[in-house]
Specification:
By secondary structure, the protein is mainly alpha-helical. Helix content is 95%, strand content 0%.
């Protein structure tokens, strides 16, 4: 009778060990699933942050290059205006300069 009781106890222990192993396996599977989910969430957050940072960088780059383009255009306009002013001034006084040069070249001093 004692052998049957020991055999029943051993069976009970084996069943409990099997059940514990299933619980451990289920916990391990759940842990791995949670780790995988956490990794995917982290990768998503990283991608969102990277995209946001890249968009901010591109916006700043466009703003600064846009200002640079505006400055270049403004400087070109100012330069063109100055060139036109100098051409007008030169054409206005060129006759006087030519006359002065001719006077000095043709005048002979004794």
């Amino acid at each position: 009778m004692e052998s049957t009781s020991n055999h029943g106890g051993i069976q009970q222990l084996l069943a409990a060990e099997h059940e514990a192993q299933q619980i451990v396996n289920a916990a391990r599977t759940a842990k791995m699933a949670r780790l995988k989910q956490a990794k995917e969430e982290a990768e998503t957050e990283i991608a969102e942050h990277k995209t946001s940072t890249e968009h901010g960088f591109q916006r700043k780059l466009q703003e600064t290059s846009g200002d640079s383009g505006a400055n270049v255009k403004r400087l070109e306009q100012e330069t063109d205006a100055k060139i036109d002013q100098l051409k007008n001034e030169a054409s206005r006084i060129s006759k006087d300069v030519v006359e002065m040069l001719l006077k000095h070249v043709t005048t002979v001093k004794n």
